[in-house]
Each structure stands twice: as C-alpha cells, then as structure tokens.
Amino acid sequence: MGETWRRTLAVGLAFVVAITGTFVFAYRAGRRVRHIRTENEPIHAWMSIPFIAHAHHLPASVLFQAIGVHPQEPRDRRSVRHIAHDLNRPVPDLIAQLQRAIDAAAQPPGGHPR
Question: In this structure, what is the dihedral angle of CA atoms 114, 41, 44, 78, given to the nearest 10 degrees?
C-alpha cells in the first residue's frame, strides 16, 4: 500500500506542477501581448498624459514639458482633449506634438531607434 500511495502522490504533485507552470506561462504571455498592444496604440483624445507616458515608458514630465504644460497637481489626469480645450488649441495638433516628443525620446543620441 505504501508504494501505491507514493506513486499517487508523485503523479498528483506532477499534475499540480504542470498546472501551475501552465498558469504562470499563460499569465506572462498575456501580459506581454497587452504590453505590445498598448505600445502600438495611437494616441487618442481620451487618454491622459500619464497613461500615454506609461504606455511608451517615458516620464510624464517629458510629455508635459513637450506640450508646454505644467501639471495642475502632482497627479494631473486630465485627458488630452481637456488639456487642448484649456490651452485653446486643436486636439490633433496637441496629439501630433505628443507623438513627436515620443518619437524624439525613442531616438538615442546616435540616431538609431531603440
């Protein structure tokens, strides 16, 4: 009976390890896919500057500085549309300026993109 018990325990443990491994790798793959999807998503008027900065791995201050805005508070979550309205500027112009800042940040001093 002892040998059967050990064999059953070993099979059960192998099953738990296999299931755990499956969940870990599925989680990592899903996270990577979400990262790729967000990274390639164009800037929309509903997005906030911190959201855009996070998606492109930049400090929000770089983007705020690029559009000439000092955040109203430390956690300024206004949308691009709201900021454009406050600055009395067209939303597409502000989005283009943000995209240029992102593109410039992606270019290291040597000129080759990251």
Answer: -70
pLDDT tens-digit readout, 13-59? 999 999 999 999 999 998 888 777 666 678 999 999 999 998 888 89
Q: Which residues pair with 48 in a beta bridge?
A: 79
Q: Tell me how far apart the alpha carbons of residues 39 and 54 are, in angstroms, rounded to a whole number.
A: 9
113: left (phi over 0), alpha (psi -120 to 50) or beta: beta
* Contact yes or no for 56/102 (Cβ under 8 A): yes
Cα–Cα distance, 37 to 13 (Å, whole number):
36
Q: Which residue has the tokens 């989680």?
A: 27
| Alpha helix stretches (DSSP H) within 40-107 | 49-55, 60-66, 80-87, 91-106
Q: Is 79 helix (H, G, I), strand (E, B) or coil?
A: strand
CB 94 within 8 A of CB 67: yes
Rounded Cα distance between 91 and 51, Å, is 17
